[in-house]
Design goal:
mainly alpha; 80% helix; 0% strand
Length: 328
């Protein structure tokens, strides 16, 4: 039971960065140095994302176009609609800053690694999961900033010249460069994925610390109460439950087989922490601290719930495959 619900070690590390920033926020010269390091770190992250994602896999999976379109619809249509509905909640139920953070997580692409892992555990269509998760992330580099500019304009986010330039320089250019160099460096990236994985996770930890340092200096914790955190947990739980139920019912109603339904549920219900944290820093700047808090919470929830679902579906598949004992 403990192993089912134990927190993801990476989430613990992220929360440690939040705690460290709350006690020892970066200021002065340290803050200036970290700001420059963050620019390099985010560029490195998106370069790696581009080098890892296989364009050939996306193209090869076109024959599952109905599945891919449905997952993209859940990711970039259903989630944003639910996020906009949550945004309508009064401040007494959920503060406007946290509601904006929930809406931002709703605009992000799906995860790649965890989606594929859960689909594999649950005996789903792994090939389709690889393709649809990769396609979601490729499109998300462009679609997410555009959606953020449209639906979060009330929070001062717009595609101004400066914002657009940061998105292009820090996100699109490194990502495109990674894709272009993939034929030459893809093997190196694959062979050293553990070391590079530590580097990109370490970069995200640095981004989180810097973002929350700015938020702490701006008085973020004086704006949040215990009720705000409780309300955020309730909202994230309701959001995840709504998407899981909808993806399951719609995929079944549209006639997908069980393996494809498993892929649709897992790939269509997730949001990428690895993409969202650096992207929030580029788009929101010093206001990114509160924006990424809902994302970190939602990420942990999706891991816990989907781990339980994956094991249950795997057990159901194995039970169906077990022949009944012969009767005397």
């Amino acid at each position: 039971m403990f192993r089912r619900f134990r927190p993801d070690p990476y989430i613990v590390a992220l929360l440690t960065m939040v705690a460290l920033a709350s006690v020892l926020p970066a200021r002065g010269v340290v803050e200036d140095v970290l700001d420059q390091l963050i620019i390099v770190a985010i560029g490195f992250l998106f370069f790696l994302y581009g080098a890892r994602l296989s364009t050939e896999t996306v193209i090869a999976g076109i024959r599952h176009w109905r599945l891919h379109l449905l997952v993209l619809a859940f990711t970039f249509v259903l989630f944003p609609v639910l996020g906009l509905a949550i945004r309508l909640l009064p401040d007494a139920a959920l503060s406007s800053e946290l509601a904006a953070g929930v809406l931002f997580l709703c605009l992000l692409p799906s995860t790649v690694q965890s989606s594929i892992a859960f689909v594999s555990i649950a005996k789903g269509n792994v090939a389709a999961a690889i393709c649809t998760a990769s396609l979601s992330n490729v499109l998300g580099v462009i679609v997410t900033p555009l959606l953020v500019a449209v639906v979060l304009s009330n929070n001062g986010v717009s595609l101004s010249g400066g914002t657009l330039l940061r998105i292009v320089v820090q996100l699109l250019v490194p990502f495109a460069l990674g894709q272009a160099l993939r034929p030459w460096i893809g093997g190196f990236v694959g062979r050293h994925k553990k070391v590079l994985g530590l580097l990109d996770r370490g970069s995200i930890l640095l981004v989180v610390y810097t973002a929350f340092s700015g938020a702490v200096v701006a008085g973020v914790w004086s704006k949040l109460s215990g009720w705000d955190l409780v309300a955020l947990v309730v909202v994230c739980c309701a959001l995840l439950a709504s998407v899981l139920v909808t993806t399951s019912l719609v995929s079944k109603r549209l006639g997908f087989n069980r393996a494809d339904r498993i892929t649709i549920v897992f790939a269509g219900s997730k949001k990428s922490l690895a993409t969202g944290v650096p992207m929030a820093t580029v788009i929101f700047g010093t206001g990114a601290g509160l924006v990424i808090l809902p994302l970190m919470l939602f990420h942990q929830l999706q891991l816990i719930v989907c781990a339980v679902l994956a094991r249950r579906w795997a057990a159901a598949v194995e039970a169906d495959a077990t022949p009944e004992p012969a009767r005397a």
